[in-house]
Amino acid sequence: MKESDEEEDEDADYAIYGSKIKALVQFVRRVVRADPTAKLILFSQFHRLTALMAHAFTEFGIGNVKLTGGNVISKRRAVTLFRNDPDMKVLFLSAEDSVSGLQLTEANHVVIVHPFLGASEAMARAYEMQGCARAVRAGQEREVTITRFVTRGTIEEELTARRSDLQRENGDEQAGQVEAEGPVEI
């Protein structure tokens, strides 16, 4: 890897992917530069976004694997590759694919790519917690960092602020069970 994100970006063409994916690529590069053993789960609500991110990360030279709603054998292969290949730094998960029960204690970072939507605030938070719980579970030997990405000046920022306010007003005990860094605004 190069010395800085700016050097990495000199040759990169992020225009087709947008500012969020650019920020995610830069974030992952910083994490891996600081800890070469780092493994990250990038969790999105939408399968199409997960596929786009995986394509971009491959283009920008970041080893990744995507867990899709395919058959059990393809899921098992993806998880095995993430667990055993030190160059596979990122596992992309989508809430549209079944992730319940999956243990990914190899990951020491979980990135919630955007605020999740649900029939209620509790349902949206439950979706997000499902992704976090893949790494934050029994058998985890490393500290896990949870990071939320929120795009400034968009509905994402409004949703995040509203959820934070609701959690404070309600004295929501569940809110503190998995602490998130950030939000990281882009």
Automatic annotation (TrEMBL):
InterPro entries: ATP-helicase/E3_Ub-Ligase, P-loop_NTPase, SNF2/RAD54-like_C. GO terms for cellular component: nucleus. One of its GO terms (biological process) is DNA damage response. Residues 161-186 are annotated as: Disordered. One of its GO terms (molecular function) is hydrolase activity. The keyword Hydrolase applies. Coiled coil: none annotated. The keyword Hydrolase applies. It comes from the Eukaryota. Keywords: Hydrolase. Residues 161-171 have a biased composition (Basic and acidic residues). This is Helicase C-terminal domain-containing protein. It comes from Allomyces macrogynus (strain ATCC 38327) (Allomyces javanicus var. macrogynus).
